[in-house]
Amino acid sequence: MTNDKGITRGMTRRGFGGMAAAATASFAIGAPSLLRAQSAITFAVPNPSALTWMPYWVAVGEGYFDEEGLAPTLEAIDGSSAVLQAMAAGQAQIGAPGPGPVLGARARGVDVKFIYNLFPKSVFGLLVKEESAVMSPEDLRGTVIGIGTADGAEMSFTKAIMTDLGMEENTDYTFLPVGDGGTAAVAFLRDDVSAYAGAISDAAILRARGMNLREITPPQYLGFFGNGIAMLESQMAATPDLAPKFGRSLVRGMRFAIDPANKDTVLAHCAAGNPQEGEDKAFAAGLLAGAIDRMTPTDEFFDQGYGYQPPEHWQMIHDSAVASGALAAPLDDLSAVYTNEFVAAWNA
To answer: How far apart are CA 72 and CA 2, in angstroms?
Structure first.
């Protein structure tokens, strides 16, 4: 799931893992803030990485929000809990929390609703060198799998895959903490590990260092999606045109970004949003490629359009949260947490 702390260097897996757990902050449900006459809005996000929110910055740069009559301001704050708190307090009309914190907030009575699945694929992946004989996780029996840290969310992500294949840690395979990005590259080069479980930021760093990688993540595990666009139901009622306009702008941004001819322009728009992130051109390009991949729906759901939320993927995340204790009990009505009502119009 998308990293609360960003997908830039040094901002990796701990933030990703936080999205699989319910938000811990308690906050009051605030009245929605009304849009001013010029339709100025605040979009709260849980990290400052412009490439994480690439369709937004493309929509800004290409004038799509202007055409919709919106004047958005992006405010990067610390994590999904803070995003939800800002929304509930009326300080942001729209936000980009992770699905786990949204489930936790709904369990506490916050009327938040997920409306746009920005990262329909998991931001974690199981990676091997291009020339490796390993073609699937089954081939990792008896090998060492590299992870960033012993307590990172990528460990539980990979362990779930291996457990489903009937393999046990320290019996059929072992984990080896090798750090992020650059140090993971060293482990690969020394053949200390046969595979590496990392986030798209890690993959971008490895590729920027000249490593050719291949992903072997089973498709069903890509359903653990990441951050998306959410609003309070009370805000949606107060400003009924905001969700249609905002989502339509994001879809236009995605369609612009996936055209290879627009790559340099997309990178420039994102660099305008976060100049520091754009300084390393090779890294930014690699991260953009990873972001586009994770923002593109799987073949099974591609025809549904950008922003679509498969109910079965929500069920999977919900059940995982209950099993892990992140949710104390199943929600009475999971369908109340999200809506696909705008997706067709956004993609028309």
So the answer is: 22
Measured in whole angstroms, the distance separating CA 63 from the mean position of its chain's CA atoms is: 24
- Residue 33 and residue 29: Cα distance in Å, rounded? 12
Strands 229-232 and 195-199: unpaired
Using an 8 Å Cβ cutoff, are 225 and 99 in contact? yes
Rounded alpha-carbon distances, angstroms, from residue 112 to 94, 203, 223: 10, 32, 21
Kindly write down the DSSP assignment for every residue of 91-152, as one continuous string: S-SEE---HHHHHHHHHTT--EEEEEBS--S-SEEEEEETT-S--SGGGGTT-EEEES-TTS
**Is 46 within 8 Å of 75 (Cβ atoms)?**
no
The model's pLDDT over 103-161, given as tens digits with 9 standing for 90+, comes to 999 999 999 999 999 999 887 889 999 999 999 999 999 999 998 877 666 776 788 78
Backbone angles phi, psi at 126, to 5 degrees: -100, 115
- Overall pTM > 0.85: no
Q: What letter does residue 335 receive in the DSSP assignment?
A: G
Each residue's pLDDT tens digit, 3-59: 454 443 333 333 333 333 333 333 333 445 555 445 899 999 988 889 989 999 999
The two three-digit tokens of residue 25, written as one number: 């902050």
